[in-house]
Design a protein that fits this description.
The complex is a heterodimer of chains A (about 270) and B (about 90). Helix content of chain A is about 40%, strand content about 15%. By secondary structure, chain A is α/β, with parallel strands linked by helices. In chain B, strand 1 (about 60-70) and strand 2 form a beta hairpin. The chains are: A alpha/beta (about 270), B alpha+beta (about 90).
């Protein structure tokens, strides 16, 4: 049984690709056979975040247009044998993706016995984003505690509940989870940033996981290593927790409270 | 610097402003989500017709599509300005 999970957000730069890379890697660490697909045709970046940019020979669009086989195009991860990356095409425009074509590739991955297919959506609500979510069984909506991201997420939640195969088949909307990223507990406690509760209240959905804003995210992407592999990083550990919850485990939230500052620290800075 | 930070009054709570603004815009966008695309155009054209007779603002026209069982009902309400005695048109 294959589960297709879309990682989407509407707004750009909120952490979709970072999340897709860590989600796919985290699932692979649990022994699942995973494929992660970059739907951002023309602006591919998942290959960089996964650290396989120099091994891309064929891409998603080549498979759709039958210029290469799926087997030739899947890039096996250096660190996990059961994890594969399908890169987006860098040269074609977004119209190169077709609904039938995407459906065929996903079906072939299902036949090949993949447990999970992670679809890394481009920003926006155009064709690439639409096709990334269309076939999904579940959605991970990445949201930052910031007005434009929250508003765009609500728009995406609306599309997940109407413009997907799940919805068209009368099964209701695609079940969606919120992943709150770039969270800064200090700024929340000083009233400068929307809290977990604020975001949940506005969007009417519980937050599955909270990824703290942390330097380790940038250094992970600098090196092409998904941040979930950095065991010393708060962000990495928060991804481990979020994925465990996605798989049905109950785990308390971590890294969501501001560190208590003593009087000395408050007076003389940290 | 640290001492100044400590003595300075607490910054304004902008998160609560953000939340309030989001609550309003999100609920407004949700209610218009599954409505036909022609509604904004219809509203503008209706306004043009109404303005031939009464001067009203765009805000005065409220159009909603509601589901009532099997039917969709287009509900239109126009708030007319208060009647001023002696005013014409």
């Amino acid at each position: 049984m294959t589960e297709t999970i879309v990682v989407t957000s509407g707004k750009g730069g909120v952490g979709k690709t970072t999340t897709s890379a860590s989600l796919a890697t985290g699932l692979a660490m649990q022994g699942k056979k995973v494929a992660v697909i970059d739907f951002d045709v023309g602006l591919r970046n998942l290959d960089l975040i996964m650290g396989c940019e120099r091994r891309v020979v064929y891409d998603f669009v080549n498979v759709i247009h039958q210029e290469a086989t799926l087997k030739q195009s899947l890039i096996r991860d250096k660190r996990h044998d059961n994890l594969y990356v399908l890169a987006a095409s860098q040269t074609r425009d977004k119209e190169a993706l077709t609904q039938d074509g995407v459906g065929r590739v996903l079906d072939e991955l299902k036949t090949d016995g993949f447990d999970y297919i992670v679809c890394d959506s481009p920003a926006g609500i155009e064709k690439g984003a639409f096709l990334a979510m269309y076939f999904a069984d579940r959605a991970l909506v990445v949201v930052n505690p910031e007005v434009s991201s929250v508003r765009d997420s609500d728009r995406i939640l609306g599309l997940l509940s109407s413009k997907t195969r799940h919805a068209e088949n009368g099964k209701g909307g695609v079940p969606a989870h919120l992943l709150l990223t770039r969270y800064n507990p200090e700024r929340v406690s000083s009233g400068q940033m929307l809290s977990i509760g604020d975001v949940e209240e506005v969007l009417g959905l519980p937050v599955l996981g909270v990824i703290p804003e942390h330097d380790s995210v940038l250094s992970a992407s600098n090196q092409g290593v998904p941040v979930i592999l950095d065991a010393t990083s708060n962000a990495g550990q928060a991804y481990v927790d979020a994925i465990a919850r996605l798989l049905g485990e109950e785990r308390p939230m971590r890294f969501t409270e501001a560190a208590k500052k003593g009087l000395f620290k408050r007076m003389f800075g940290s | 610097m640290g001492i100044l930070d400590f003595l300075r009054t607490r910054p304004k709570n902008t998160a609560s402003i953000a939340k309030e603004r989001l609550r309003i815009i999100v609920s407004q966008e949700r209610s218009s989500r599954n409505t036909p695309d022609y509604l904004p155009m219809l509203r503008t054209e209706l306004l043009a017709v109404i303005r031939k007779y009464v001067h009203v603002d765009l805000d005065a026209i409220n159009i909603q599509v509601e589901r009532d069982g099997e039917h969709e009902v287009l509900e239109l309400s126009v708030a007319l300005p208060e009647h001023k005695p002696g005013a014409t048109g």
